[in-house]
């Protein structure tokens, strides 16, 4: 789309160099020029190139620079550095930059931000630094931000913007438009205005397109929507995002426990929340914690060690099942060769079912009405795939070891393990969810342990019984 | 938030029963009442309860009903059934309902929809049925929808809404507002208006809040933004979503190859795209294709069989590595017991690294600037975890088999496999991406095959060499 910009529009940012290459990454040429300017301390060039860019572009550049150049860039930009860019970078990069700036400069920059961006930056700081910066802010600004920061982490109150337009119900459309034309303290952008009573209790909302298509003399109360899904400030951001998605909202009023309007939650923050949640689910299922790409070795080890330790424990459990059959294996080495195949197929089939289940639970598509049907379906899939792969493995193993009976034994174990895998893949996440645990975090270890243990036990057990060893 | 609705606002939908229970699922009581009304063919009750609900609520009810009741409900609602609800349900449910309705009724209902919703429903139908429905639509409506349907699947042109407000640059704010007050054909809702030349080439856009805060006599061209990231209609929806996210857009102009305005893409469609993409990534990493929860056994088997077949092949590859060492195993059965632990730890560590890498590639956080740093980090994590778990497994295995030398051998294999796992976990997705393949689909099989093969080979190989068997 960027080449369309160039063709169609006389871009006011014509002096700006192209920042992205064709893959959408920050281009090497651009980064070279910035690096050279930083080396030569050429603030004028840096201000020209970085001063008026969109915050996400500045964020991309910051993430592409090494830590020393990053701090130099921010220092050279001085007051022209748009602190909003810090909402677009990893936590590690953000803290790195914040810690390199004097608190006075941060306070000045913070007071120019929308309150939601300011809170996003402040909430990650340690208590002392945050208090120091807040103390340097003008009184009203400090109160405003403190109120947001008092709400729990990841709540709607933390993500909301405290700047909004609210009018009384008896105003006319004309009065409302005149008010907006005169007031210099409007939010940077907004898509609806709220209607409140004298105590600021929320009465309703009006979308801007509704105002524009209504005659001046019409009263606001006659065009306001009363059901506008107000969000409780204490509500978790993930649940707030679900309300936005379900009702296709662009923005929603945030109210305190007395029903008083305290802020507005906008769709752009909600898009970030949706991303974070998808990220979290993917990472949890992969056995990595709240890790970010900019984390160093120590943080990465910390986020992964626990999971591997649990896996070591369950691996010993599976190994001890093998240990039960050491005599059988010593008499028929082919068992040792084939046993990982049965376990691995079960693990993969179980992971497939579990992936579908965990995702459906996260998106609330799986509930008590369809759970029985999905369990039946998974049983069907498990049995079908079990028999199909039993035939394949029976032929392959029978030929390999020139032992048709061994083929039959491994086939029987395959059917059992694929069926167990399907059941474990759906029942374990459902039970974990019911028990109040996050199925994305813990399902995988339970499912693969089950398929390993059952895989080894069924195969080695049936072989021991059949061959009477 | 729903209890806030009740407390604060005099809900115009007071006659409506509460649809959701506390978990946010459709409540059993509500569903019972609907089911009973369907049985008694009580259209009046169903119209009252389902006629004015939000489309997503109707969609949730449809998904909770069994197929027969679902079709009866739609039949009983007749013209009061809001076809938009079909954009909120799984493809299988959607086709099920569409196929139960006569094409005349679909055509009538389609012409009342926003064009993006109409296209969403039409695009999944088979060609013949779609053409038949289109032929029954009024001319302008048919042209409008055909134009969207001519754009490639999953393109911005398919997702756009063809209803929008466009004005010439020389109009004043006052003229624009008057035009909106008079025109009855405005879109259902909109958050910006576009500025076009007489040939409909896009010149710029103005947000509604900008119009409301500007005096009537001001010309539109003086307040329009020129850089508004127009989206090429042929652009893939995923890339369009990335533009929205990067620049926090609420809506964006969609232009054809001549720069002419053909539609508008709105954030609510983009939110759906973001969800679909996250869904796809999660499912691909879990080895399930484009599967939906409503798929039956046959579709589910089809989406999973291929992946399991590949896994069967790679499992035989790993097994053949074990087969190389059958003599060593027959002389020391403990090797068969311990070998899955080494392979399993490698598999999990590799999956961790791969998860972080695949996700970072999907969100474009990983690029040529930080790849070297991340590879170094993963090497560090692999070595650290390798040595840490080597010590643990050396002690555990040494004690279990009362053989400290065996502990040493398994420890050495653990260090090697954990390091290989880390490298495979990052290099394989990077290489696949470079080769133009989707790393989310194919990384997992390559990574776990690598860790299985290296795990078995290093452990059994070192043991054979050390114990000289």
From TrEMBL, chains A, B:
Q: Where is the CBS domain?
A: 160-222, 224-280
Membrane as a keyword? Answer: yes
Give the keywords, sorted. CBS domain, Cell membrane, Magnesium, Membrane, Metal-binding, Transmembrane, Transmembrane helix, Transport
**GO molecular-function term, one example from the UniProt record:** metal ion binding
Q: Does the keyword Magnesium apply?
A: yes
GO-annotated cellular components = plasma membrane
Q: How does it sit in the membrane?
A: Multi-pass membrane protein
The record's family statement is: Belongs to the SLC41A transporter family.
- Report the superkingdom from the record: Bacteria
TM annotation in the entry? 305-325, 383-401, 407-432, 444-467
Q: What is this protein called?
A: Magnesium transporter MgtE
Question: What does this protein's UniProt record list under function?
Answer: Acts as a magnesium transporter.
Q: InterPro entries from the xrefs? A: CBS_dom, CBS_dom_sf, Mg_transptr_MgtE_intracell_dom, MgtE_N_sf, MgtE_transporter, SLC41_membr_dom, SLC41_membr_dom_sf
Q: What is its main location?
A: membrane
Record note on quaternary structure = Homodimer.
According to its UniProt record, where is this protein located?
Answer: Cell membrane; Membrane
């Amino acid at each position: 789309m960027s080449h369309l910009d160039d063709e169609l529009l006389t871009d006011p940012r014509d002096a700006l160099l192209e920042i992205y290459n064709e893959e959408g990454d920050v281009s090497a040429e651009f980064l070279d020029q910035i690096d050279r300017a930083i080396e030569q301390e050429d603030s004028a060039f840096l201000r020209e190139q970085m001063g008026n860019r969109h915050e996400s572009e500045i964020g991309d550049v910051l993430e592409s620079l090494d830590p020393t150049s990053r701090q130099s860039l921010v220092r050279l930009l001085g007051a022209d550095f748009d602190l909003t860019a810090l909402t677009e970078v990893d936590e590690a990069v953000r803290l790195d930059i914040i810690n390199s700036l004097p608190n006075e400069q941060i306070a000045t920059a913070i007071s120019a931000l929308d309150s939601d961006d300011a809170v996003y930056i402040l909430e990650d700081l340690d208590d002392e630094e945050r208090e120091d910066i807040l103390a340097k802010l003008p009184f009203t600004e400090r109160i405003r931000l403190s109120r947001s920061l008092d709400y729990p982490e990841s709540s709607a109150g933390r993500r909301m913007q405290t700047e909004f337009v609210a009018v009384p119900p008896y105003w006319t459309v004309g009065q409302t438009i005149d008010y907006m034309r005169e007031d210099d303290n409007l939010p940077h952008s907004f898509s609806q205005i709220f209607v409140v009573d004298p105590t600021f209790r929320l009465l309703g909302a009006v979308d801007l397109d509704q105002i524009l298509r209504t005659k001046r003399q019409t009263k606001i109360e006659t065009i306001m929507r009363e059901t506008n899904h107000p969000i409780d400030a204490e509500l978790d951001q993930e649940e707030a995002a679900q309300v936005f998605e379900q009702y296709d909202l662009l923005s929603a009023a945030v109210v305190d426990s007395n029903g008083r309007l305290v802020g507005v939650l906008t769709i752009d923050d909600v898009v970030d929340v949706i991303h974070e949640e998808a990220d979290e689910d993917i990472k949890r299922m992969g056995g990595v914690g709240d890790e970010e790409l900019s984390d160093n070795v120590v943080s990465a080890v910390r986020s992964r060690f626990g999971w591997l330790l649990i896996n070591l424990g369950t691996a010993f459990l599976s190994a001890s099942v093998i240990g039960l059959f050491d005599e059988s294996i010593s008499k028929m080495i082919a068992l040792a060769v084939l046993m990982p195949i049965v376990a691995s197929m079960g693990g993969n089939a179980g992971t497939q079912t579990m992936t579908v289940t965990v995702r459906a639970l996260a998106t609330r598509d799986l509930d008590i009405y369809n759970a029985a049907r999905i369990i039946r379906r998974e049983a069907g899939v498990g049995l079908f795939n079990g028999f199909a792969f039993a035939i394949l493995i029976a032929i392959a193993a029978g030929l390999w070891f020139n032992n048709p009976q061994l083929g039959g034994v491994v086939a029987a174990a395959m059917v059992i393990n694929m069926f167990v895998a399907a059941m474990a893949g759906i029942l374990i996440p459902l039970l974990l969810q019911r028990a109040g645990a996050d199925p994305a975090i813990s399902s995988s270890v339970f499912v693969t342990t089950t398929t390993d243990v059952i895989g080894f036990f069924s195969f080695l057990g049936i072989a021991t019984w059949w061959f009477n060893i």
